[in-house]
Design goal:
about 375 residues, alpha/beta, 7-stranded mixed β-sheet, 8 helices, about 15% strand, globular, disordered N terminus
């Protein structure tokens, strides 16, 4: 209004209508209307109280859910008491409580427990230490967008025919590969594993600014696979239970009890539970298959076989027992169709012996995920799964 008043004094001969354009009038009207509307809306909100904000709904999970674990139909092992001062967190939400990773490497140690830092086993001379040196923070192949998780497992390594040759075996998940022989005499086999299997085929877009030499160093070279013989697909269901007592006694107490319970309930459901090392001959041919021999079917379960092992720290000891169930890509359900969770790894927390039968039935046999124990998961494309 001050600007209009000055305009009138300067141009007295002009009609007022020329000084106040339709645009100004319209804008003023809209402004007044908006202010009035805003004031009215604000007043209305104050009267009615704060309005709840609608949460965006994400896509449904790529699997069927059951809300809670079914009650056991058989007598299970008792839930062990936890050490004083180390309680299980039964209140915090579980969904999404897992670190993202591109690959888990399970080092077959044949042991049930390890030092708190697994790379310190055997005075630091071990495969886990070698891999952490390459892929850990500051390592040659360190990549925050392609995390390699290195764990120790209780599975025994395959034994080479030359008994004087010291080797280690490893599982790669969710690649579902078993590498039977990684000689400890040199670092060459570790480099072959890293370059041939663990590095990504393509880099994350965040690496676009790297030099060609740096990009080449961080990218997989499949020619290195020829340096490791006997590598094959895993066809077993793998049930991995954290039992790392050297890190936290909650898992150290719960893990062995759950392992025994899983083996018993799997066998009770007609699943062939494999134990002992995988035997591989000098040519790399498999003497004892990881899964059941071709054409053989176990009782009512269409040839499902499984291995149950203890593993080292995966995070979340306060949620013990912690269990990961890996379903191999080629697994068939009881009707002959593809298993609904084929190629996926499903993480569970707060698992007790009374839940084992339900996990075997719902997840291993039927391909359903138990919602109230679900921590997360990973699929064959390395996508992290959450509800």
């Amino acid at each position: 209004m001050l600007r209009l008043a000055r305009g009138r004094r300067m141009v007295n001969s002009c009609p007022v209508t020329l000084l106040v354009s339709p645009c100004v009038v319209a804008a003023t009207t809209r402004s007044s209307s908006s202010s009035s509307s805003s004031s009215s809306s604000s007043s209305s909100k104050q009267k009615s109280g704060p309005q709840p904000r609608a949460r965006p709904s994400g896509p449904p999970p790529p699997f069927e859910l059951v809300p809670t674990c079914p009650s056991p139909t058989c007598e299970c092992a008792a839930t062990p008491a936890m050490p004083d001062g180390l309680e299980i967190d039964r209140k915090a939400p579980l969904n999404g409580v897992m670190s993202a990773y591109a690959e888990q490497v399970l080092v077959c140690t044949g042991k049930d427990d390890w030092a708190s830092r697994i790379e310190e086993e055997n005075s630091g001379d071990n495969l886990a230490a070698d891999l952490k040196e390459l892929f850990g923070r500051g390592g040659t192949y360190s990549d925050p967008w392609h995390n390699i998780s290195v764990l120790n497992a209780s599975f025994p390594s395959s034994t080479p025919k030359r008994s004087e040759l010291q080797t280690t075996s490893a599982y790669l998940l969710p690649s579902f590969k078993y590498v039977p022989f990684l000689p400890r005499v040199s670092f060459d086999s570790v480099q072959a594993l890293a370059k041939g299997y663990l590095l990504p085929e393509t880099l994350h877009p965040m690496h676009d600014g790297l030099s060609p030499i740096h990009r080449d160093r961080l990218t997989r070279k499949e020619a290195y696979r020829s340096l490791l013989y006997g590598v094959r697909d895993v066809t077993d269901v793998l049930v991995l239970v954290c039992g790392h007592g050297g890190r936290d006694m909650r898992c150290g107490v719960m893990g062995p009890v759950l392992r025994d319970e899983f083996e018993a309930r799997l066998e009770g459901a007609g699943v062939d539970v494999a134990r002992g090392p995988i035997e591989v001959d000098e040519s790399g041919g498999e003497v004892q298959k990881i899964g059941p021999p071709e054409g053989r079917e176990t009782a009512g379960r269409g040839g499902i076989s499984a291995r149950v092992g203890l593993i080292s720290h995966i995070g979340g000891h306060k949620f013990a027992g912690n269990v990961i169930v890996y379903i191999p890509p080629g697994l068939r359900a009881k009707g002959g169709e593809a298993h609904p969770l084929a190629g996926k790894g499903i993480w569970y927390g707060r698992v007790e012996p009374k839940h084992v039968e339900g996990i075997v039935k719902e997840t291993v046999l039927e391909g359903r995920v138990i919602a109230d124990m679900f921590r997360g998961g990973i699929d064959e494309n390395r996508k992290i799964l959450r509800l």
